[in-house]
Specification:
245 residues, TIM Barrel, eight-stranded parallel beta barrel, 44% helix, binds orotidine-5'-monophosphate, pyrimidine biosynthesis, Orotidine 5'-phosphate decarboxylase, EC 4.1.1.23, OMPdeCOase_dom
């Protein structure tokens, strides 16, 4: 069963989008968030906004009722990442990510660190960034295709106790088949249609394609933040999700 269905077992709430709040400061962010509600979407704070605002804004948005993805892509020695995950758990965040390339011991330490929190965050591993393609991997010394590397790293993440991965929706169908129904597949690189500007993304899909392929959540920044009516775009995607499941 898709995790979206688990969320919706009592009331059919379909809200697969995590809106990436890639803004420079708090006032711009809060101005934008006023157009949204926790019934429509989840939110993500990444490196730019967190560097500018710190935990204050994270806690403010959680207090407004939003599920929050703290996207700081940890990549460090096991103890450092484990301690950072504990702080995130204490802040009440819903999703925390780390690079799978930090290795098994880093991921196991993170999973152990949050295991005893009554409301622990889901830990997810970043596989191959959606901005990367085959040529980038070759330059880094990898001979696998992006899909092969994503599958290998997703298995390692699952084996190390993580709850899911960040990957492109292009890998979602094979991951869903291999990793089971409960494993979270969080997919950025989403564009409303294939003709839309891909910006710096390389491995992209539409919301409908991604959900059909087995994505649990769609991370969307510019297609929502630059829309004339962000709430209307989200409602449309939620309808699409409802029709699919
Ligand atoms: O971890 C992420 O969220 C992430 C991983 C990845 O592989 N690719 C990726 O684009 N992201 C994030 O997803 C968002 C995508 O933004 P848009 O391209 O504007 O939709 C950004 O906030 C990225 O930091």
């Amino acid at each position: 069963m898709n995790p979206l269905m688990i969320d919706s077992s009592i009331h059919p709430i379909f809200k697969p989008v995590i809106v990436a709040l890639d803004f420079a400061d708090e006032s711009e962010t809060l101005h934008f968030v006023r157009q949204l509600s926790p019934d429509l979407c989840q939110l993500k704070i990444g490196k730019e906004l967190f560097t500018a605002t710190g935990r204050n804004l994270v806690e403010k948005l959680i207090n407004q009722g939003f599920k929050l993805f703290l996207d700081l892509k940890y990549h460090d020695i096991p103890n450092t990442v484990a301690q950072a995950c504990k702080v995130a758990a204490e802040m009440g965040v819903w999703l925390v990510d780390m690079h799978v390339s930090g290795g098994r011991r880093m991921m196991e330490a993170a999973a152990n660190a949050v295991a005893n929190y009554s409301q622990r965050p889901n830990l997810i591993g970043v596989t191959v960034l959606t901005s990367m393609e085959q040529a980038d991997l070759i330059e880094l010394g990898f001979s696998q295709t992006p899909e092969e590397l994503v599958i290998c790293w997703a298995k390692l993440a699952q084996d190390s106790g993580l709850d899911g991965v960040v990957c492109s929706a292009q890998e979602a169908a094979s991951l869903r088949a291999k990793m089971g129904q409960e494993f979270l597949l969080v997919t950025p690189g989403i564009r409303l249609n294939v003709a839309e500007n891909a910006d710096d993304q390389r491995r992209i899909m539409t919301p409908q394609q991604a959900l059909k392929a087995g994505s649990s959540y769609l991370v969307m920044g510019r297609p929502i933040t630059q829309a004339k009516d962000p709430a209307a775009v989200l409602r449309q995607i939620n309808h699409t999700a409802y029709d699919l499941f």
